């Protein structure tokens, strides 16, 4: 269990520590049993706490779910952008590095990536949560845009398609590849699609020197 909590006086845990532990517990429950299983009782049990602690830290289950989804988005950003620039600085190789880093996380944590689809569907179906699904995908697009901006800067190129459109393409294709893989677990086919798409994206890069003069 992720950092069990207790109600006794012998354990002193800051509100921030409790918040972090409960968010992690919610993620464990959601990944294992589905987002619909996340409740005050199940999160408290996973964290080794009482429901009272959950109510103390989070004003409502909505607040806890929002915090859980925010944590998922943060980890997505870290996974996609935490790629060291190495080797030849060409567009294709940098896109391949980012894609490979992301794909490794998919294969190592399929339940976590399945959860990203589940929380989006849950948000769309739950009154008052639609904005959360929008925010989730805005975060994905923002992250894709950051990757494209970094590639353009390092490789000294510009994109011939609007950056927002290209970022949306990356998110849409990635969603399709990941969801398809979650169904059939055919990693070879998934990598083939990624490779073909990377070549397509790279074709929209134009060296800056072509427009400088």
From TrEMBL:
PROSITE patterns: HTH_TETR_2. InterPro entries: BetI_C, Homeodomain-like_sf, HTH_TetR, Tet_transcr_reg_TetR-rel_C_sf. The keyword Cytoplasm does not apply. Residues 39-58 bind DNA. One of its GO terms (molecular function) is DNA binding. Pfam families: TetR_C_6, TetR_N. Keywords: DNA-binding, Repressor, Transcription, Transcription regulation. Signal peptide: none annotated. Residues 16-76 form the HTH tetR-type domain. SUPFAM superfamilies: Homeodomain-like (SSF46689), Tetracyclin repressor-like, C-terminal domain (SSF48498). PANTHER family: HTH-TYPE TRANSCRIPTIONAL REPRESSOR NEMR, TRANSCRIPTIONAL REGULATORY PROTEIN. This is TetR family transcriptional regulator. It comes from Mumia zhuanghuii.
